[in-house]
Amino acid sequence: MKVLFYIANFEYGSYSGASMLYDLRDSNNIVVNELDMVHFVIESEELISVDSFQFILGVNSFLLDESYYVFNDLYYYGLIIDSTIYNLSKKSIEAKNYCTKFSQLFLNNLGYVKPEVIYKENISFFNQIQVRTNKISDANFDIIIKYLMFNNYFDEAVIYKTNLPTDFSDLKNSLLESLKFLHRKVETIVDEISAFKYNSVKQYNTQNEVLPYTSTSFVDNESFNWLFQNLDAIQHVGVGAYDLKINSKACRINDISQVVSSYSFNSYENRVILGYTKLYVLILADFKKNLDKNIILRSRDVGNFYEYLVSKYYEIVELYIDEVLKGFNIIYNYFVTVLKVELPLVEFPKDTYMFVSFPHYKNWFELILLYNNLFSKEIKNDSIKSNLEIESFDRLFEVYLLYLIKDLILINFDAVCTYYKVDNNKNKIAGCYRFKSRSEDDITITLYYEDLPKDIHLLTVFTNKQNIYNPDYVIGFEKDGFQEFLILDAKYKTYNRLEDYKNDVRDLSFKYLHGLGVISKKSKVAGLYLININEQQGYKKVFKNQFDILTSESPVIPSIGGISIDPKDFNLKENLLLDIILKHKIIFENRILEISKVTKSVTK
Known about the structure:
This protein is an alpha+beta fold. It is 28% helix and 30% strand.
C-alpha cells in the first residue's frame, strides 16, 4: 500500500496545472507549508476495506472515500476531506486519470509530522513530512498581536493569520489584511475627496439654447435656421452698431439659438465608483451582521483563552469594518450630494484608461480589483468561519504573559522601564526590560525574556551553548551588588491532571534549577514557577505549608510552584503572581538587611 502526496503549484493566485508528487514511503525531505493546497491518494494492489482504514497526519485523522478507480490493475482511493474544517480548492486536475481536488489543510502541527496508516488494526509508518508555517515564523515575526491592542499590550511578535478560502494562500488574500488594505485606501480617498471635484472625469454635453446674441456667440447652421424661422428676433436700427444688414438696412439680433457646452460629474467612471461604493457598504454591513465569533477560531481549546482571543479578534474585525463603512459612507454622500452623480453602475470598467490616468481614480480602481478578487463570492457563501487561524497558542500565551508581567511590575512598583534588545533573530522582542522605581526604593527589577542574565551559568554537563535550556522569563532583583532570580515558564495547559503538573515540575526543576544557576555568593536563584492557563485561577503548591512561599514565614528557597491565570478575569492589582513577586522582594530585602548588619558588626 502506498500513500501518494500531491502539493499543488499555485503561481500569482492561479493554479499552474502542475503539482509535486511524493511517495511517502520512498520520498525524503518532504516540506509542506501549512496553507499549501494538498491532495492524498492511497494506492493499493487490492480492494481496501473502507471501514477498517484510517490515515493519521499529525493530530488529524482521515477516513477513506468509498469511491475508487482502477489503473494498471491498481486501486486508487481518495481521502474524505471535511469541508467544514478544511478549505477546499475549486480547482481540480487530472492525476493519473483521477479527478483531484486540492484541500488547504489546517494541520495544527509544526516541525516534523510522521504519517500513519491504520488498517485492520495494523499500523504502518511513513516518511516524515516537515510542516512549515507562514503565520508565526522567523520570516514574519513582525506582525502586530491584534488582540493585545485592546488590553494596552502592543508589539510586533505574533501573527493572527487570517485566510479567505480561495485557490491560493497569500497574506494579501486574507480577511484582516483585506480590511486593513481597505482601511488604508478608503482613508486616502476620503482625505483627497475634493480631487474628484477639482480634477474629475466629467461628462460633457453640447446643445442649442436660445440666448441673447453677442459678437462672441457660437452659431451653426441650426442657429441660422432658427433665426429665419423667428424673424421677430431681428430688430431694425437706424444708426450705430449692427449685427447684419437686410436690404441695406442695419439690423440687430436680439436672440438666437446658440451652441452651448456644459458638463456634469455624472461620468461613466464616477457612476462605476458610486456603484462599487454601494456594493461595499452593503457587503460590509451584511458581513458584520453575519460574523459568527463562535466559530472564527480553529485550534485547540485550552480554558477560555480561546473565547478571550475570539472576542478580541471579533472586536478588531468589527472596528475595521465600522471604520471602513464610515469612510465609504463619506464617499457615497460626497458623490451624491456634492457631485450629483446619478444612476450608479455595477460593472467592471469597460475602459480603464481614465481610472489609471489620475492617482485618486487609480486608488479606486484598486478597490474595484480587490472587491472582484476577494470580497465577492467567498463572504457571501458563508465561508468565513475559517477566517482566523492562530498557528501557536503556546507562543501567543507566552507573549501575552510577557506584557502582563511588564504591566504588573510597572503599575505596582511605580517604575520606569528601559528595554535592552538582545541579538535574537527569531524573536524581535527578546531581551531584558529593566525597571527602576520612581520612589526611594533602590531595588532594580529586571525582566528577561528569552534571554539570560550574565550571572546565570550553565551548570551541568547536559547544558551547553548548542543545547541551552532557556526559560521563558527570568525576574531579577538587584541591590548593593546582590541579586536574586526567579525563573518563570509559560505553559499553555490547564493541568487538569495532577500527574501532568508533577511531570512538568520535575522536568523544569532539573532543566532550570540544576541546569542553570549562579556561582557567585552574591547571587542566587530563589524560585521556579510554572504559569499556566485555566478558568479556575489558583496556586499549585509543591512544598508543604510550613515551607511554601505563600504560607510560610521562612519558606524553602529556591521555591517551586504553579500559578493558573485566566486572561478574561485577571486583576493587575490583586493576583497570585504579584503576591509571589512581592514575597520574594521582601525576602531579598531582608537578606540584604541581614548582610548589612553582619557587615557592620564585622567592621566594628
